[in-house]
Amino acid sequence: MGADLERWRLILGPAAEGATGGLGEENAGRDAALDWLYGRDDDLGKRGVRRGGARSGERGAGDEPSILTTVDWLDGIHRLFPKETIERLERDAVERYEIHDVLTDPEVLARIEPNPALLKAVLRTKHLMNPQVLEAARRIIEEVVRQLVEKLSVQVRTVFTGSRNRRPSQHRRARDFDLKRTLRANLKHYRPEDQRVAIERPHFHSRTSKRLEQWQMVLVVDQSGSMAGSVIHSAVTAACLYALPGLKTHLVAFDTAVVDLTSEVDDPVELLMKVQLGGGTDISSAVEYAAGLIENPRRSIVALITDFYEGGNPSRLVHTTKQLCQQGTQFLGLAALDEDANPNYDRELAGRMADVGAHIGAMTPSNLVEFVAERLGT
Description:
Layout: H1 3-12, H2 17-20, H3 25-38, H4 42-46, H5 70-80, H6 83-96, H7 101-104, H8 106-111, H9 116-125, H10 131-160, E1 163-168, H11 179-186, E2 190-191, E3 196-197, E4 205-208, E5 215-222, H12 228-242, E6 247-254, E7 258-260, H13 268-274, H14 283-293, E8 300-305, H15 314-326, E9 330-337, H16 347-355, E10 359-363, H17 365-376
Parallel strand pairs: 5-6, 5-8, 8-9, 9-10
Antiparallel strand pairs: 1-4, 2-3, 6-7
């Protein structure tokens, strides 16, 4: 059987075998692994994919091959697929099909590849875990947080090592490359035959160190279930900003209650272990709490990270937001703080807050760091 026919058989399922022929051993293993997961889907079932008893942990009688356990399945996909595919399969197992033993069996957790999607799933289900399983889950939290902190720390160092000014510099650093000045100075070397400018002398900016006066940053984070990604990135961002000179960082989490997590902000792993996702939402109480932390309104930033679906008092929330903005506090209302920055939020309430002076939008963590840096440099 040719490789192309095997690929078509994998795409079309067992019903196509009359036209394509059977599968080789390795592709048969891939097919079984995909069937174990996606055979749960009704739409795929209509296509002719074998469905029999594929639910996690179930075993059935009959002539079909024995049903894989989750551990068998994980072992198989790590042997049969590239890393990017493995991550997608594990993410779908957790998020799309809610295969809970991926997150409640320590043997499974020991095999699974840490990634942000699994971390979000751990945060949603850790209240169901016994201490042994929770300790295994901590490995996922630690590894993903380490990766996120490592990435964001580089961006923080870059932003806060100094601001560019217009004076030229003899120090040739890629991040200080002055594109406009370089193009102007080298236009005489334009080559029309290949439509390129030959750069004979590149130009660079100089940098001046930031003189940071004391500012205050209050991150107010909605810990409802839909905000899991933003909670993770808020914890990591707060940790990276916490050690900056001239910036006093607070982290406040809320649902119907308000919890000040500032004492844990230097340890994002421990902080995330304490977060409890889910429950109601009282945004107005959380913003009022943040307002009570403000020491110098004109040197303060409040970043509210929420989907704006208010379970408390919307009018009180708008009133408190207006007071903060009028006293000179920079107020950010972020519908998402994660790498995708794809928000899903109550636009009506967010619009009312924008009308009284709040900046409403969505940001990646690096965008937020740049925003803070601009304010601290003023």
